[in-house]
UniProtKB/TrEMBL annotation:
InterPro entries: Ni_insertion. It comes from Megasphaera cerevisiae DSM 20462. This is Uncharacterized protein. Gene3D superfamilies: mk0293 like domain, Transcriptional regulatory protein pf0864 domain like. PANTHER family: NICKEL INSERTION PROTEIN-RELATED (PTHR36566), PYRIDINIUM-3,5-BISTHIOCARBOXYLIC ACID MONONUCLEOTIDE NICKEL INSERTION PROTEIN (PTHR36566:SF1).
Length: 154
């Protein structure tokens, strides 16, 4: 198990378009993840709850970004435990192109294989074939080239 810190703040009076910039600043500060969810606040005001996962060492930096780049005047933060899969990046050959995929496993069993989005996007632009076809082919090739099978834990 791994311990991270979750930072949350509700924002109801900021241009939502600015959220993309806030996300990029937070990720540049080496947060583990950032997301926003719609929430309804008192008096029926629609808002966004900005959430960040980070290490304890990054907590002050993340709070500084939240307060300087948003209209937030307060934030909650608390430790959270997480379980994570082991991950490795593999290269597969699809129609003559080298593309990457992420192989995830938990307790030694493969749990997921996902194609790298940017690689598949570039292949789709280059060839005119749909991106979902490239994603499917990458996954199929990962199974074929590396002999993976997905197994479930009992």
């Amino acid at each position: 198990m791994d311990v991270l810190w979750q930072v949350e703040t509700n924002i109801d009076d900021m241009n939502p378009q600015n959220m993309e910039y806030v996300f990029s600043r937070i990720l540049e500060a080496h947060a583990n993840d950032v997301w926003a969810v719609p929430v309804m606040m008192k008096k029926g005001r629609m808002a966004s709850m900005l959430c960040v996962l980070c290490t304890e060492e990054r907590l002050d930096t993340i709070l500084e970004i939240v307060f300087s780049e948003t209209t937030s005047v307060g934030a909650r933060y608390f430790p959270v435990q997480r379980a994570i899969c082991d991950r490795e990046i593999k290269t597969v050959l699809v129609d003559g192109a080298e593309l990457h995929c992420k192989i995830c496993s938990y307790k030694g069993c493969i749990t997921n294989i996902s194609a790298e989005y940017d690689d598949c996007r570039a292949a789709a632009v280059r060839t005119g074939k749909p991106i979902k076809e490239w994603q499917r082919k990458v996954k199929e090739e990962a199974y074929a080239q590396y002999g993976y099978t997905i197994s479930k834990q009992d």
